[in-house]
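Amino Acid Chain and Its Fold in Token Form
===========================================
Scope: a single protein chain, as residues and as a discrete description of its fold.
Amino acid sequence: labelled as such and written in the usual single-letter residue code.
Position: the record begins directly beneath this header, with no further notes in between.
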Amino acid sequence: MPWSGFSTAKRATTVPMTAELSSWLSAMEGKKIVVWGDFAADHTVYGDTSRVSREAPVLILEKEWDSVSPGCAGNAIMNVAALGGVPIPVGVVGTDELGRRLRAQFEEHGIDTTHVLSGEETAIKMRVLAGGLHTVKQQVIRIDSGGSYSKVADSAFAKALKAALRLADGIIISDYGLGTVRPTLFASLVREKAAVSVVDSRYDLDAFKGAVSATPNEPELESLCEVSIGDDEELLESSARRTLRRLGLNALLVTRGKQGMALFEPRKRRLDIPVSRTQDIVDVTGAGDTVIATYTLALAAGTSFADAARLANVAAGLAVLKRGAAAPAAEQVRLALAGLE
């Protein structure tokens, strides 16, 4: 029977099936996932604040140390690897110092960078965390720099993408608006590939018609549909259903922060998945990358959309327990599932 109407009475709520979900984690191991997207260096500077500047009413930060980790689509790559999948990155990093550090981090984790192109400048998201000797350091400013990969020719991306797609069980399109992901290449190459394709596009989801699924957060869905959902569950339902039809998706997974997730499939009831942890959230940075990595890996392993979403919800619940972007390991997800029993 075709789906008819937007009644919230037609919503289903997930029931944990931990043994079945846990078995899928083993099936996910070794699945090859192409991650085509915008790579950035998450550069975090840690410092101690002990005095006020004479030049202005601001604290002076004495740098203690810094760290660099893969950000944006790079975080999705690290999540795929942590869950036992084999990520195949397709994107760009610069030949600058942070770009070299980023590429080296991939290679240290056994990730093949053959299809990672070299650009002039790496996109950088620098966060400065400050605090006193006996306090928890807090983020005081974020500085973004670099960030446009639009000068790289379509032909270079097409060559890299074609080679990577020959190996793919699944495809993540991670579009942060930095110019790596080209909708024309999606239409000509990815859409015809016989593999699961899942899109996360911050500004241009409408350009990826024909993907298998997508994982927007609620503000991105609002922007796409030009609505303000707020607490209006009926509007969420109608907006998601319209997006399903408009993009020709097999499923739409909407992440809703503390309200969990909502999965929409044609001719099926909406599935609401409550957030697995509500009291322990430390930092939601990168949680969307954990969601798309887990969800795509699970689909590539053969799960239903519902089970893939349930697994993604548990993994994201682990990712938000740590400060900064995190990549939960498969064994951590397995233990978390056991704790749901």
Notes: Residues 8-39+69-122+148-339 form a domain with the UDP-N-acetylmuramoyl-L-alanine:D-glutamate ligase fold (CATH 3.40.1190.20). The two ends are 34 Å apart (CA to CA). Confidence is low (pLDDT under 50) at residues 1-10.
